[in-house]
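Q: What would this complex look like in 3D?
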Amino acid sequence: MFWANLTANNIGINTKTCVACCVFSILFTCLSPSGSTATTILSPGTFLPKNAPPGFTNNEPITPVDLGATHDPEQIALGARLFSERRLSGNQQLACVDCHNFQRGGADGKSRSLTASGQLTRFNTPTIFNVTLNSYYYWGANFSSLDNQTEDAVKNLDTDWTSIMQRLNSIPEYRYRFNQLFSDGITKGNIKKCIIAFEYSLRTANSRFDRYLEGDASALDDTEKQGYQLFKSYGCITCHQGRNIGGNITLEIKDAPYLWQQLQHPKNGTGAESVQPNLKNIRVPSLRNVAVTGPYMHDGSVAELREVVAMMGRHYTQAKLPERDINLIVSYLQSLTGFYQGQPL
Amino acid sequence: MSRVITTCFLCGVGAALLLCILYLHHRNVEVLKTGEKIESIRNVRLLHSLANQELLQIRYQLYSNYDQLADYTKQLRTHLVIMETMLDPIIVGRTQEIDDHYAILRQQVDIKLELQDRFKSANAMMKNSLLRLREIAKKLSKYVNPPQREILGIEYFSQLSTESLQYGLVNKRHLEGKLGQILDALGLIKQNDRTLNAYYRELQQHAELIRSRGEIAKDSLSTILAIPIERSTEHLQHQYSELHGRLSEETNIVRNGLYSASFLLLLYAIFAFIRLAQRKQALAREKERAQITLQSIGDGIISTDAHGIVQFINPVAEQLTKWQSDEAKGKQLHEIFRVFNAITNAKVDGIIQRCITEKRHIVSAGQSILVNRANEPVAIEDSVAPIMDADNEVVGTIIVFRDVSDKRELSQQLLRQASHDALTGVINRRGFDQELVNLIENSRHEGLLHALLYIDLDQFKVINDTCGHDAGDHLLISVTELFQDQLPHQSTLARLGGDEFGILLHNHTVHEANVFAEQLLSRIKEFRFEWQGINFQVGASIGLASIHRQVGNASLVLSAADMACYVAKDLGRNRVHIFNPSDRELVRRQGEMEWVAKLTAAYKENRFTLYCQAIIPIGVNTSVKERKHYELLVRLRDTGGRLVSPNSFIPAAERYNFMPTIDRWVIHRAFSQFRWFNSENCYSINLSGTSLNSDTLVAYIKEEMDKSSLSPEQVCFEVTETAAIANLDAAATMIKELKKLGFKFALDDFGQGLSSYSYLNNLPVDYLKIDGEFVRNVKTDPVSFEIVSSVNKISHLLGMQTIAEYVENESILEVLREIGIDYAQGFQFGLPEPMQKEASPSFSAIHRLPALAEPA
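A: Here is my prediction, written as structure tokens for the whole assembly.
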């Protein structure tokens, strides 16, 4: 109708303008970042463990392992997949799991392991189980966070992060799974996040000693109980304490007499060449699952547990331990073997 | 244009607000980050003190657990990582001071953590030796015999060591002293005892370890406790708080501005919505109104777009074009609206294109004929107007047209009426004059002789007065037919007046004309007019004037024939008289002498008398009915007491300038005899054309009015339309003056002059009296009907009321009511009656017979 044409021209405002105005104003009101109240004031408690163990004057200096399953199962699953992915290594034949074998107590049972580049590692491979309970990583306590440790560990696979990401990007399965989990897909941070999440799930709870600590007096037999008392009275407990029975303390190199002697008197084949002069501290290793994670010491030079106990006793008590005491302590140490996925290690 | 400006403005505002948002967002991130950092600084301080507490606890425990300390350390490291991002360049306003403070803090924390590791290492070694110490003490006390034990004071030592281990090494110095003593004593007694020697060595080494590692632990701890991390964090926190406050303040200002702007914009939107809704409503209303107007308008309307495509067609246009609205829409205009020029018969095209290119209203020049869908021609008047948009571009056209068939017919009829007699159909005086002029011209050029017959019917007045107007009309029609039968070839018959006819005989000598006239006269004599069973014989007086080269002008010829007719009448009627120049003198003298004498005598003898005739309100307007109206009419009695027809003496009085005298007599009479009048009623007094020119009349009226107690509102003066127009200025002046005094005014015989309505604006009269000739024919003649109704419409428009004369019967009255006439006057409501009381009913009955037509 011509009336519409006639009059529409006279109207400066039309519906579109109105709608635009409304949308604008609502948009602006919504988009405007909220006020200063949004600044998060974090209460101190947020960072502190709520169930912090009380002062343990009347308690045992060792605490049981918890399962610590606080991570996204999807990330854990992807981490597990990456952990056993051989295609990521330089020769495409080595995976993390090859040295941290779950059938061999989270290690490989060798004194020193073979890297992807064909060289031997500097130190004996420690167990991967309960790794997240440690405060220091590597024998030399080189790192205090798993993030940094993972960053470094890929060197053993004879590769770098750029090629790892290229490899992953070329595999549709990983592209898909990463895109499902992360908005930014495959990145170094996301890869490490998944692997660390998986490592958090590697706990061995429910060992007999843990059950004893939780109040089940019958979990240990008498010899083991005597062994534990000796473990304490001989002073092993001063270093091998806490939830991981070690792993949270370093010793200065001169307080580690075995290593100190090696440094003073190098002998071939003992791995002394790997001990660099700048090595200042050595991590006290965890004793959890110690019965199944031989060979022992930083160079894997000692095959038998009782030998290690005897050696430690000699070094730290300044006296030779009686055979009986060694047997008792070894029997105690055997009670520290836990369960992973319902199976004893 | 305003739309473009509005859009630009809104876009500008939107862009500005978006920029504000981006800025705010950026700033807010900084505020949040700053807040986070402050939080981290606070947490670093807290964790530092918690770790210190934990260290002290570890120091005094025999069995240490470093898990808690490790947790604190881990968290401390996390917060340090967060604090690392403090150096993120996004933070505006970060100062060198902050960087320096952070560097110091970082250094302090690093030192602390290193010392902590050192402390842990030393503490573990020392605790190990302490535990060994107790064990050796136990073994020694078992091994040595009592006298040796006394010397060694082993029991005391054992007790001491146990206590000190249990209660936190408070007496470490004492313990060391004791250890030294024991070693000294043991050194004395060991001699060659290998076991004792071994214990001695062991003790010695452990004592050394306790001393050296204890020293390290102590130094590390005291150094850790002395690190001023608290102060550093406080400094840093203070500086970040300031920065945070400043940022927050700035952000708040911008945010408040943004909120206000958004709010204003929302308000504007609401306002715009409301205005739009209102406009839409108004638009719908306006559209509705326009639609209704278009639907109900009497004119045909077609609208097209700029390409001539029909978009709208209203019902009248549908009717005229015979195209239905839905069919017509979308068609080209020339399919629907086929117009031809009535004169040239050429198709009229391109009027739309002209309208569009010239951008102006175009009224079709000629007489247009619309050929509708049924191929019937319809006379129309049409015009095309462009529709402009805001940018003055033509977006369409509107064609307005109306059916003017009736109007054209009417104008043709009016044209005809102007030259023809309505009753008989022969030409009238005007047409006759024209013919006469032509004939005189013809005679002058070609030397031919023609003749003019002037015929006056002798018995017409008798029949008219006794049997009524109808009879008179029929007589006239019959006579006309009779004349037409007799007319020779090339002759013209005309009705010149009431019962007067004229015949122009072409190419007739006086003699031939005389023969024809005699013949005609004998035919008239033979003619019998029958009316309601009565036979009337009709006679005629015929004057004959010759038309020749020297005859002079038309009026001379006409007056010659008129005078010849008069002489014929004077000689005893029913005869033909050929004009003789001596007739002229005869007529002049006789006529003048007679009427001047008669009127003067009548005035002197007071033989004038007043009659009145009722004017009845018939309109729907009730207020009209409140006052009765009467028209005062002057009558003359002859010496024998009989009434003389006003048609006889009034023309004479006008001719001999006697009317002002009569007018004044009527005025005087009316005002002085008001006692007969009902003070409720209104009375009309006729004024002649000559009176209008009198300078003294108004003064006279005023004088008379002052003497009388008749109120001016009761008096209405009437003046004929022709008289008023002839003296328009004088009439207007007089009307205004009299109206000023309070009198009313009426315009009499309206329509007779067939003149324009426009002068009515200058004549502020209260009433229009529509000429009786139209009223009488209102029922039978559509032209009369149209004239009456249009006069009525126009006078109502001008605020005047209408009076219809000559209302002779009920059927005419019905029609008048239908038209909406306000007053009626005529036989239907009563004849004029004498005003005086002495007028007896019988008297008035007698005088009903003579011609009682309204005064001319």
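A: To summarize the key features: Chain A touches chain B through 73 residues (CB under 8 Å). Residues 1-12, 33-58 of chain A have pLDDT under 50 and may be disordered.
Q: Very helpful, thank you.
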